[in-house]
């Protein structure tokens, strides 16, 4: 009995137990632990398309005043060194002003990729994964990258280089304000919340685990929180 109590306590301290209701995870944010510590990129590595891994002379990714500042000047990402499967990932972001070619006149764009597959230590833009879109007007879209798929409304997306499944609702704050995005991966059900409102949901993704990426994609953006709790 004591062993059972100890096990239950350990689960409650280190993550969530599986829930049938995605909203339940939003009610207990104290279980979320920062995977961006506000001081440096410990636990992550950077990759830029023209520079390679951990070579960032212009500081496309920079930590300032406890925030991750992504200039967007070059396409690339920071990537976790750890793999994740079932999790609640919470991020808080705000757009900056700068935009860069080839997207200097396009919507401001970024994204969170998860279940990322880095094969044979070979990084690329963009690796096989599923994305929660972070783009002006489109936050919460699914993007399935490199022939990945997901089922939404009973229909599996078409496997191709990039396949989009548009969100069901819009709940973004105006540019200049902070936005909160929660991504719930719960044993085959993926749910996106934007500022507390469910905007998209899919099931049976073709990938089930991998690394997590925060993109640089032509637009300046700030992240003040990147936090996660694993779901048992």
Structural write-up:
This protein starts with a helix and ends with a strand. The protein is mainly β and 232 residues long. The protein has a single domain, classed as Jelly Rolls. Helices cover 6% and strands 45% of the residues. Residues 1-13 have low confidence and may be disordered. The radius of gyration is 17 Å and the shape is globular. The protein has one helix at 2-14; strands at 15-16, 33-34, 44-48, 52-53, 61-64, 67-70, 76-80, 87-99, 109-116, 129-135, 142-145, 151-152, 155-156, 162-165, 179-186, 189-194, 197-203, 211-216, 219-231. Strands 1, 2, 5, 6, 8, 15, 16, 17 and 19 form a nine-stranded mixed beta sheet that branches. An eight-stranded antiparallel beta sheet has the order 4-3-7-18-9-10-11-14, with no helix packed on it.
* Count of structural domains: 1
Number of helices: 1
Which residues form runs of ≥5 with pLDDT under 50?
Answer: 1-13
Averaged pLDDT, please? 93
- Which overall shape is indicated by the principal axes computed on the Cα atoms? globular
List keywords for this structure.
disordered N terminus, Jelly Rolls, mainly beta, 1 helix, 8-stranded antiparallel beta sheet, 9-stranded mixed beta sheet
Write the layout of secondary structure elements.
Elements: H1 2-14, E1 15-16, E2 33-34, E3 44-48, E4 52-53, E5 61-64, E6 67-70, E7 76-80, E8 87-99, E9 109-116, E10 129-135, E11 142-145, E12 151-152, E13 155-156, E14 162-165, E15 179-186, E16 189-194, E17 197-203, E18 211-216, E19 219-231
Parallel strand pairs: 1-19
Antiparallel strand pairs: 2-19, 3-4, 3-7, 5-6, 6-19, 7-18, 8-15, 8-19, 9-10, 9-18, 10-11, 11-14, 12-13, 15-16, 16-17
């Amino acid at each position: 009995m004591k062993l059972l109590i100890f096990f239950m306590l350990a689960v409650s301290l280190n993550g969530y137990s599986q829930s049938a209701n995605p909203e339940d995870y939003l009610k207990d944010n104290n279980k979320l632990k920062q995977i961006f510590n506000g001081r440096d990129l410990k636990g992550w590595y950077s990759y830029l398309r023209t520079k390679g891994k951990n070579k960032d002379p212009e500081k496309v990714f920079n930590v300032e005043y406890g925030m991750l500042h992504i200039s967007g000047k070059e396409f690339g990402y920071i990537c976790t060194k750890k793999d994740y499967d079932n999790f609640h990932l919470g991020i808080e972001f705000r757009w900056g002003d700068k935009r860069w070619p080839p997207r200097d006149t396009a919507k401001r764009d970024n994204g969170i990729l998860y279940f990322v597959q880095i094969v044979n230590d070979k990084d690329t833009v963009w690796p096989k994964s599923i994305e929660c879109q972070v783009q002006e007007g489109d936050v919460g879209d699914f993007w399935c990258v490199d022939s990945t798929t997901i089922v939404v409304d009973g229909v599996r997306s078409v496997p191709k280089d990039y396949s989009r499944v548009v969100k069901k609702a819009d709940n973004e704050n105006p540019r200049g304000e902070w936005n909160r995005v929660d991504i719930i991966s719960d044993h085959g059900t993926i749910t996106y919340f934007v500022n507390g409102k469910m905007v998209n949901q899919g099931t049976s993704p073709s990938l089930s685990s991998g690394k997590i990426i925060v993109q640089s994609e032509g637009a300046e953006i700030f992240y003040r929180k990147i936090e996660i709790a694993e779901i048992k």
